[in-house]
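Running this now, will post back.
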Amino acid sequence: MNHSLRFASLTTLALAMAWPMFGQAAAPDSKSAPTMQQVLDASKPSDWRPLNPDDTLYMDLPEGRVVIELASAYAPLHAQNIRTLAHQHYWDGLAILRVQDGFVTQWGDPAAEAKHPKHPPRSLGKAKATIAAEFERNISSDLPFTPLPDGDVYAPEVGFSHGFPAARDPKTGKTWLVHCYGMVGAGRDNTPDSGPGTELYAVIGQAPRQLDRNIALIGRVVQGMQYLSDLPRGHGPMGFYKDRAKQTEILRVRLASDLPPSERMHLEVLRTDTPTFAALVESRRNRSDAWYLYKVGKIDVCNVPLPVREMP
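Update: finished.
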């Protein structure tokens, strides 16, 4: 089966306080606003959250480790199947199959792509071969959503949920994750249920938002993006490697909870449902760094940084 891509909580009051200029460009003024680094330096321990070991994947490449946080609230079926695959060491010894410049890096089983009768694909073991499409989910009161004050081309509302860039449509009652840099999705064939998570991709270029709600986004890279974005580009169609020898081997993929605590990375990510995060967004909407002469007063959902720090 070919799973490659087929397409080449804050309150309203808190938001109003953090974002007073909805959709307006702010003129330069003499008042000094905090920079993003100053916002982070002033953050409290409660503004950060540790990664859940059951939702954290370590993918080790020869160049270094890529850490992926699974979006269980948005793609629970995919997350569970990916955990099963990781438990079974499914990706160990497989490869980076495709690096398309300005688009994605994709990895999985070369035999599944080649469809060679003498080299069958690796067994999925207890994992499922098909997964119901998880392109969107219902909006619910228990799902936090921090909206951005600026408009979006692709969705009525955009913001952040559980640390992931997300969109929603109050009229339809649906919400979904969006394709920003570093987001990870499950490649599929034409049928919606054909992407079980065996082949995954990470966005390494400009946000391909046209893919939103067409593919299940299962998480994001929280550390190690350089190891995926710096790989040699494939020269075959859609960035696939023509020569298998050019593929980068995956040394191993492990769920953090499958490792003893002494072998886990102690990473924390900034919560996206706090006034500190609102202040961070405002620091990016209206840059106060000395270099900036004009404050834009707007920001795109994919231009909001999501800070990560490693604790001792």
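The chain has six helices and 16 strands. More later if anyone needs it.
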